Amino acid sequence: RVTSIADRLNVEFALIHKERKKANEVDRMVLVGDVKDRVAILVDDMADTCGTICHAADKLVSAGATKVYAILTHGIFSGPALSRINNASFEAVVVTNTIPQEEKMKHCPKIQFIDISMILAEAIRRTHNGESVSYLFSHVPL
What we know:
two-stranded antiparallel ribbon; Rossmann fold; four-stranded parallel beta sheet; alpha/beta; PRTase_dom
């Protein structure tokens, strides 16, 4: 998946391989690729307590990344998440509004959100009418 996205964006990529011994606990994290003197963008499906993404940000900075951003589909942000983000080396943590973020943004200025209501509405409309949802992959409604 990473290769496909990088090819479509015409960018190079690195990845962070994480190993877990049990749920919600990262045992080991390995950076594969070169981020020295580059802007790094972490992409993940969700972040709950943010231990993993903050650890990953530290790993990227240690490897020479000049800036680190995170882009997440779902920002759950429970427990120590906001404090961790505030203290981490992120320029910004960008999430969709699948979960309301207004209150959390008041306590963590690094959090920004992207409104995806139009694309969700169009996906629902297309599903209801038996139309192609995959069409939205290349034709995003604004």
